[in-house]
Amino acid sequence: MKAKEFKDSVIWTEKYRPKDFSEVLGHSEIVKRGRAFVQNKNMPHLLFSGPAGSGKTTLALIIAKKFFGKAWHENFLELNASDERGIDVVRQKVKGFARTKAFSGPFKIIFLDESDALTKEAQQALRRTMEMFTGTCRFILSCNVSSKIIDPIQSRCSIFRFKLLDKKDVARVVERIAKQEKFKINNKAIEGLYDVSNGDLRRVINILQASASISKNINENTIYEIIAEVKPADIKTIIEMALKGSFLDARNRLLDVMLKQGLGGLDIVKAIQKEIWNLDIKEEEKLKLVEKCGEIEFRLVEGSDDFVQLEALLASFILAKK
């Protein structure tokens, strides 16, 4: 491999991470407040809460870089609490960094990613550290579930709640990357990306990079081949066959999909549950079908045979329709 090829071989999630507030999509109010903190050269402790891939780490990095400029590395400490979750990391790394003054700027910033993985004891120690070093340090805590953060920490933070990106924002990012990387992608492929990611931009970009390495003309089939998930159209066909009473046809189609794509029972049940809401049937019937999916999903988690339980699910769809 040539030197240039090594240079170009980068992870797109880092390459296309927003570098400025203006590049962050889908969180206009949060971005507005973040920009105000930087302009005023002051901010409280922050708690970023929301699903993975919604931009929490990106915004924390932008705030740090805008606060400190070229000196941001010296004034910013990033720790992943899921790796270092005990009380020792708070007492040693966090406290040691927090007690010294910033090289430039009014304070340092400590970013604790996945802070909901911290033990209760570690959170209590963190609470005390936040109290003691407010003059020299600010904390940005990131978590998926804010309820796992103890109340004393939540009360000391300004809470920002992130959401997954809308389809239009995902489409803008995909089209921008396609233009820069010089590949083509059609609208159905973009819709497929959004359906499988539900707005998780990190997953969207990872799938896109894998797809672009295979073909420079990306369509819906390319996307589903990469992620090894069943197409919604195939699932819809199976459900409709069952609702019409064609058990054997639905069963054979299901077996064909599972064997060809190597999918497990849980993957199929989740795909069925998702597709039920797109069916042209009464709401009451949809509720019955979703309830059956929940029951089968529980059985599969408990260790039941995948195909037997999926056959039972198809049979229950036929009985529910009757």
Characteristics:
322 residues, alpha/beta, Rossmann fold, Helicase, Ruva Protein, domain 3, Zinc Finger, Delta Prime, domain 3, 3 domains, 5-stranded parallel sheet, two-stranded parallel ribbon, 17 helices, 7 strands, 60% helix, 10% strand
CATH class of the largest domain: Alpha Beta
Please name the CATH architecture of the largest domain.
3-Layer(aba) Sandwich
Poorly predicted runs: 1-7
From the alpha-carbon coordinates, what is the Rg to the nearest angstrom?
24 Å
How many domains, as an integer? 3
What profile does the largest beta sheet have? 5 strands, parallel
Number of strands: 7
- Large-scale geometry: elongated
Q: Strand order, biggest sheet?
A: 2-3-4-1-5
**Number of separate helices:** 17
CATH domain fold name of the largest domain? Rossmann fold
Helix content: 55-70%
**Overall pLDDT score:** 85
Explained architecture:
The protein has 322 residues and is an alpha/beta fold. The chain has 3 domains: 135 residues, Rossmann fold (3-Layer(aba) Sandwich); 61 residues, Helicase, Ruva Protein, domain 3 (Orthogonal Bundle), CATH 1.10.8; 90 residues, Up-down Bundle (Zinc Finger, Delta Prime, domain 3), CATH 1.20.272.10. Helices cover 60% and strands 10% of the residues. A 5-stranded parallel sheet has the order 2-3-4-1-5, with helices on both faces. It starts with a helix and ends with a helix.
Question: What is shown here, in short?
Answer:
The protein has helices at 3-8, 12-15, 28-40, 56-68, 72-75, 87-98, 120-132, 151-155, 167-181, 187-197, 201-214, 220-227, 232-243, 247-261, 265-276, 283-301, 306-321, and strands spanning 45-49, 76-80, 108-113, 137-143, 157-161, 184-185, 217-218.
